[in-house]
Specification:
By secondary structure, the chain is an alpha+beta fold. It is 28% helix and 32% strand.
Length: 201
């Protein structure tokens, strides 16, 4: 008799608000994912994580990346969400570096198809994910790190009213170099009414 592993707390998850839906990223998303990434290549490149010189662990194909993310999700260390707008694939929100124990912490990263940018899609999607993390998933704190030059991402955290809690020099290797990041965070105590209420009001 084969015993199946129970789902990790809060995963898999399906979240919806109006025309915006979030669901687990799947291998079957490869074609729309590549299409959106190709059309938005120049727009996204400046903010893309890269490997520092000498790193021997290449990112791999989409299938390899999604398999790694799904494995981390099964282990309770990540939640890779596909973002859909009106039923069409439009981007990604990923909960990374989930730490349990005394921390109950995670970080969130995101990207969006430029064709639907400026419509409140990403603030709403991130708000839904934060609410899910701080309630169903049982986390206490969620963090978002943003390059100071990334005005689009800064608008997301500003619309959500996240507190700026720090500055990390040369924090991540982005677009070929180590880049500074501003750090924003929210805890359960900071938003008893929920994040989605902030962007829906």
């Amino acid at each position: 008799m084969k015993l199946s592993r129970p789902p990790e707390r809060g995963w898999p998850a399906h979240l919806t608000h109006g025309t915006i839906a979030l669901r687990p990223l799947e291998i079957a998303d490869a074609e729309p994912w590549r299409d959106v990434r190709t059309r938005n290549g120049d727009w996204l490149k400046e903010w893309e994580a890269t490997l520092p010189p000498g790193d021997a662990d290449p990112a791999g194909s989409y299938v390899q990346v999604i398999r790694r993310l799904r494995r981390l999700a099964r282990q309770g260390q990540a939640m890779p969400f596909a973002v859909e707008v009106g039923g069409r694939f439009a981007g990604q929100v990923t909960v990374n570096n989930i730490v349990r124990g005394s921390a109950q912490f995670a970080s969130i990263g995101y990207w969006l198809d430029r064709a639907v940018a400026g419509r409140g899609v990403m603030p709403t999607a991130v708000a839904m994910v934060i609410d899910h993390c701080l309630t169903t998933a049982g986390l206490h704190r969620v963090e978002i790190c943003v390059r100071p030059e990334n005005t689009n991402s800064l608008r997301v955290v500003e619309k959500l009213g996240l507190h700026e809690v720090g500055f990390a020099p040369r924090f991540l290797h982005i677009n070929g170099d180590w880049r500074d990041h501003r750090i924003f965070a929210v805890t359960v105590e900071d938003c008893p009414e929920g994040m989605l209420a902030r962007v829906s009001s």
